[in-house]
Amino acid sequence: MRRRTRIPPAPLPQRQGVDPVRVRLPADGPWATVRDHLVERLSGAGPGVVDGMFEAGGIVGADGAAVAADTPYEPGMFVWFHRQLPEEVPVPFPLRIVHHDEHIVVVDKPHFLATTPRGSHVTETALARLRRELGVPTLGAAHRLDRLTAGLVLFTVRPEERGAYQTLFRDRLIRKEYEAVAPYDPSLALPRTVRSRIVKERGSLTAVEVEGEPNAVSRIELLGHRAGLARYRLVPGTGQTHQLRVHMNALGVPILGDPLYPVVAAPVPPGDFRSPLQLLARELEFTDPVTGVTHRFRSTRTLAAWPGQ
């Protein structure tokens, strides 16, 4: 049986709530030095960036000591460093804390705020904000909510407990309920359960329905309609990427403000927060795997296209 490599703790502190980057040198390769590998691996960083990091002592080993550029390449060696953080337009909406105890933090996330650092969204994420605001660097996300979707997100306080909470989502032991505003179609028979196979290819912006065994299940209910729009309750039984958005689009009632379905719209300039996706993660309900307590959390946010909820 293959032994699992023990990963040393990060020797660098977080910056603005963001963890340092950890790199493990591959077992095989043509590189003579650590620098040779990182220059190739981080080629997108730009000319001279990696050399500048070495010169500044910004690349360190497991003991926290700076690694010299001419350090011989050692397969399996770990190094850490902080990447230069991108310029980000602040998301001007509050992150509301719904619940905070010694095990979990539940927040009511606004539209346009990513859950965790990824791509061009790093410090302007729910995780980085919470770590800074609460002063809890060990916080981690138990699941993710799309950047464009508002509503409830569960974070864990203790790294050793994170797996137990992530298992709730993996094993479908947590009930999630969403609300959406979309066109009203009087000919659409609701409630109904939609089942299909959804695939999202790496590098593609959108997910698609394909033939095959269903891997995505959504319950769709009508809560009310007025002026050609309707408010829907969406209860996912699975957690495929963009599942609810894909299923609503397939029913002919794409969610208002969706920049991907039914067609991919032109990119929105940074700082344009005028047209939020009208999708809200309204409720989370589960039995706490650590304390045994039954939790039911509800978002207090409203969708702009349906005032007076």
Describe this protein with a few key phrases:
Pseudouridine synthase; alpha+beta; 2 domains; 13% helix; 5 helices; single chain; eleven-stranded mixed β-sheet; 309 residues
Describe the structure.
- This protein is an alpha+beta fold.
- The longest helix is centred in the middle third of the chain and has 9 residues, at 126-134.
- The chain has helices at 34-41, 49-55, 126-134, 162-170, 243-250; strands at 21-24, 78-81, 96-100, 104-109, 140-141, 150-156, 175-183, 192-199, 208-210, 216-226, 229-236, 279-287, 294-298.
- The strands form 2 sheets. Strands 3, 4, 5, 6, 7, 8, 9, 10, 11, 12 and 13 form an 11-stranded mixed beta sheet that branches. It has a two-stranded antiparallel sheet with strand order 1-2.
- 13% of the residues lie in helices and 26% in strands.
- 28% of the residues are buried.
- The protein has 5 helices and 13 strands.
- It is elongated, with a radius of gyration of 22 Å.
- The protein has 2 domains: 21-81, no CATH class; 96-298, 2-Layer Sandwich (Pseudouridine synthase).
